[in-house]
Design goal:
Elements (H helix, E strand, L loop, with lengths): L2 E3 L5 E3 L45 H9 L2 H17 L18 H18 L9 H31 L6 H5 L3 E6 L3 H13 L3 E5 L2 E6 L6 H18 L6 E9 L3 E3 L7 E12 L8 H7 L3 E13 L11 E10 L4 E3 L2 E22 L9 E6 L6 E3 L5 E8 L2 E4 L2 E4 L8 E7 L7 E6 L2 E3 L7 E5 L4 E13 L2 H20 L3 E8 L2 E8 L3 H12 L8 E2 L6
Antiparallel strand pairs: 1-2, 3-24, 3-25, 4-5, 5-23, 6-22, 7-8, 8-9, 9-10, 11-12, 12-13, 12-21, 12-22, 14-15, 15-18, 16-17, 18-19, 19-20, 23-24
Helix pairs in contact: 2-4, 4-7, 6-10, 7-9
């Protein structure tokens, strides 16, 4: 890389605008002695050389230059915002209502939103925030933030670290705030320095030249912002990993114990009891409203038992689980254990549990039943034996019966609309009579059956509790990132980097000042410092830059 040597002897990197040592302009014809150009200096990054404006030959340099552009970063953010907006048109897959008849996204979006929902699903927008292109966009924003920060932070830090009290005259005269005073004594200059110290300026003196500086840390505010944003983006990317983020939904029936999804078969949950509270129709406060709307749910609670597989458990052993917690899950009262949180998210009522059937003779409607059977719909037996020798074989079982292209199917594995195909074998016979039973259906395929299966009483039902299982280790990262971001905002908003140079020249005193914002404030501080002395008040030369 070519180097630029200033007349003060300092070697500057290629691309430097202002000499790092004396501040003299070293770009274009501005370094020529006697130059009458009075345009104010561009003090952005203190005129230091940035990599993106220096190296442009290798592919790595071009990638660096591309991502160091603020415009590129803004466009990436705009695209991410547009993508995020698309993701809010319809609910994301994880927010499909628990009470939806079918929570399968392929079915849900078309059923609820028609052709628009079908297109939404087919384009993959139903799981947008976990899609590869959205995550890539987030990653690119993070890369842009890192490169933008490094491209500016490193040279700025170098320039501020190397700055000296003695500055070139061109540097001083082309500052926004500048004045030249004649016949200033050393005592008057010392008075100004003492007053600046009282205003919490850090004073650096060298051979009679003075640099008064304060609030330098505010210059790092934007970079602290970037660190906070990078941590937030990193947390967002980590949410795709099961270890850092888990969000599962599970249905647990009363009396059922199942594995908690996402826990690698380590934890179990048992629904010991489900309680549904409704508003009292006899309460005068709600009577009129309930007469119009009917029953209204007040709240619902699940009594759960959480168990964990013992560390020394033997596979298949009856006592392999140990109870670690018993509690109630209700709305706004989740249950927490070992980093997991269980939320009460929904319920289903009147799911069939047990059905009861009689075996009767078709030839005599008044005859007593030959016997009865009890079918556990969650775990039905295949064969049922009656005391009189009649044998009933369960040939087919459809927990959630439906017809598709004329063929019986089950839509789900849950007993919501159960249907059965039974074979009834008379005593001592190997030839069974086939019959089909469902809710409101009792079909004899041949029309010649001697025995018939009939439902003898109302089925037993139960409640099903919808539980959301969540583990989020990224939340602390979001909090830390947000806190760091706010620190950067406060750091850059409420403090200013102010510098005042006092340079003697041929019996005169040159005074110049620069701040990254709040010029009115630094002018007031200079006015207080020079009060009662012969130093001329600085003038705002901004109009010279027009």
């Amino acid at each position: 890389m070519d180097k630029i040597k200033c007349e003060c002897g300092h070697i500057n990197p290629e691309g430097t605008v202002l000499c790092e040592a004396c501040g003299k302009p070293v770009e274009g014809n501005q370094h020529i002695e006697g130059n009458e150009d009075k345009k104010l200096l561009n003090m952005r990054y203190d005129g230091s050389a940035r990599r993106s404006q220096t190296y442009n030959t290798r592919i790595v340099d071009r990638i660096w230059t591309f991502f160091s552009s603020v415009k590129v970063g803004i466009w990436l953010i705009v695209l991410a915002l547009l993508g995020s907006g698309i993701g809010t048109i319809f609910p994301q897959e994880m927010y499909i209502p628990a009470e939806a008849p079918d929570r399968n996204p392929a079915v849900f979006y078309e059923d609820y939103y028609g052709i628009a929902g079908k297109i939404y699903y087919q384009l993959g927008f139903h799981d947008l925030y976990s899609s590869w292109w959205y995550l890539l966009l987030i990653a690119l924003i993070g890369i842009s933030l890192v490169i933008c920060s490094l491209d500016r932070f490193i040279p700025l830090r170098r320039a501020l670290k190397l700055q000296k009290p003695k500055r070139h005259e061109h540097f001083l005269t082309r500052q926004r705030l500048y004045s030249k005073s004649e016949n200033i004594t050393e005592e008057e200059k010392q008075t100004i320095v003492d007053r600046l110290k009282k205003q919490r300026y850090k004073i650096v003196e060298e051979d009679g030249y003075v640099l008064a500086e304060k609030g330098r840390f505010s210059r790092w505010g934007p970079y602290v912002n970037h660190i906070g944003l990078i941590i937030i983006l990193l947390a967002a990317l980590l949410r795709i990993t099961p270890f850092f983020y888990l969000d599962e939904y599970v249905w647990v029936r009363e009396g059922e114990e199942i594995i908690i999804p996402g826990t690698e078969n380590e934890y179990y949950i048992e629904n010991e009891k489900f309680t549904l509270d409704v508003y009292d129709k006899d309460d005068p406060k709600f009577k009129d409203a309930l007469e119009k709307t009917g029953e209204v749910h007040k709240g619902y609670t699940t009594d759960v038992k959480i168990s964990k597989v013992k560390d020394d458990a033997v596979v298949g052993a009856a006592d392999e689980l140990e109870v670690i917690k018993k509690d109630q899950i209700m709305m706004n009262h989740p249950v927490k254990f070992d980093g997991y949180t269980l939320y009460q998210s929904g319920f289903q009522e009147n799911e069939f549990k047990t059905m009861y059937f009689d075996v009767v003779e078709t030839s005599d409607e008044n005859a007593e039943p030959l016997g009865d059977i009890e079918v556990d719909l969650r775990n039905p037996e295949q064969t049922y034996e009656l005391d009189n020798g009649v044998r009933i074989q369960l040939d087919q079982y459809y927990p959630d019966y439906a017809l598709e292209d004329g063929e019986p199917i089950t839509k789900t594995k849950y007993p919501r609309n159960p249907a059965f195909v039974f074979s009834v074998y008379p005593p001592g016979s190997d030839e069974g009579e086939l019959s089909f039973l469902g809710i409101g259906q009792n079909i004899d395929p041949t029309g010649e059956n001697e025995y018939q299966m009939v439902m003898n009483k109302m089925p037993d039902t139960l409640y099903v509790s919808g539980i959301t299982v969540r583990r989020d280790y990224t939340l602390p990262l979001f909090v830390i990132g947000a806190a760091i971001f706010m620190i950067g905002v406060i750091q850059g908003m409420y403090w200013q980097h102010r510098r005042i140079w006092l340079n003697p020249k041929d019996g005169n005193l040159l005074v110049a000042a620069h701040t990254n914002k709040n010029w009115f404030g630094v002018k007031n501080e200079i006015e207080k410092a020079i009060e009662g002395t012969n130093v001329t008040m600085v003038e705002d030369q901004q109009e010279l830059d027009k």
